[in-house]
Amino acid sequence: MEMSSNTCAKSFNSNSMTVISVGQCIAQQDTAPKCAASGAVLSGLQTMDETNYIYGIGQAVLNKDSTYNRFGYWVNGKRKSKCMPPAKRSASCNGSNEFDYTDPLLSATGGYQFAPNEPSGIIAQSTTANCLNLLFGRTVMFGLDDNGCGHANEETNICYKGYVCGIKPSSP
Fold first, then answer.
1. Residue 17 or residue 113, greater confidence
2. I need a labelling partner for 15 at 20 to 30 A (CA). Which of 53, 54, 62, 170 fits?
3. Which residues have C-beta within 8 Å of that of residue 153, sequence separation ≥ 6?
């Protein structure tokens, strides 16, 4: 895993979560291979404790960077093919159930609290807003947002400045 001075790890529910902050904006499609290099996966958000932990780390990074007003950290979740445009919002494509989660350690999705009016990919009929990030500003956590997997930053002054890897610790 790419280690830097901005790497923080913590255990939740016997699983280890590592939050990696990077120097330049990063696309989601570039994060999963970085996690995999250390035997980890892009982490899901099982509880709000996990979400708040990421926010605390990310907000400290944002406060040191005056270039952007909002940051996102990539987390596990890609839009299901049946929930891609031209699909419409429905009982099976509404909120966290619009996404597939590949984190094998994820047993609940309580940490997936979406920002207001998010996820918006189906509503906007966006063909690219298929990956999830935790979005926050200098003083507030907005919540989860769906954006393009290949985008490292957005015209709306967002920089995807990190990602979260999860791994089950090996037994001693």
1. 113
2. 62
3. 25, 68, 159, 160
